[in-house]
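Deliverable D4.2, example record:
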Amino acid sequence: MKQFDLSRRGLLKLAGAAVVTAAAPVPARAADAAAMAKLFYTEAGKGRNLMLLHGWTCDSHDWSFQLPVLESRYRVVAPDLRGHGRSEVMPQGAYTPDDYASDIEALISTRYPGQTFIVAGHSMGGQIAARLAAKRPDLVSAVISVDGALGFDGDAAKLFDKATETLRTTADPAATASALFRLAYDATTDPALKRWHARRAQGTPAHVVRDSWAPLFTDAGQVGTREPSADFCKRLTVPVYHLCRDPAQAKRMRPWFGNAKSKVDVWANAGHWIMQDRRDDVNAALTSWIDAL
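Output generated by the structure prediction step:
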């Protein structure tokens, strides 16, 4: 297994090489090393390229129950997003979905020039994957969204609005994150997983917790809720596999994805971390869909 970081020095070196060799162009934003975070990520396996993105206040360990299976079939890259896990903590105000997506764009463009990835994301990571696919369909061949931050309406959207206000004023944003998590667990969710999620949120820098939430769901330009989410999803051209827990949400979202290979499935007996609560079933579903592309 390989471990890497996307350092400023490495980006500058790779961006310079791309200028000399036209076969590996680097997008303008990716060449701006000052704007990019230093990312920790692992790479293992051979075959189709698959990127795994975690969610808000989490890290790439969230995919631990998928990695052995997926790495036995594909080349899997699993990064920690900026401000999370072992990746660089950027200053306040640098945690919009576009900031996160630009880091992944730079990672693919510089480390894997000329290649495409299936990008899977959980929660916030699902929206980041979809945003990158909308921006760079030449880099993203398909999107997997595991209860991704897309397609919410009604009561969920109202809850997210309230959470935004709380996060802006609370002295303990990790407590707000944990409270939201408790609302999204299933009765079958292992208490050890709940404690893991809560402690990890406590270890995430407070400004990262605060700054990441509102751009997903409530700020101008959000695509996580209501009509903006529908409009955004309808513009996606790559295949999308969206796994969610709400039948009403699934019914609402199915017509949004125009690619014939797209699908939306409802997963019962699982909390927000579907891939942890039903790990074997999710592994089978993911590999079946990927292999059919």
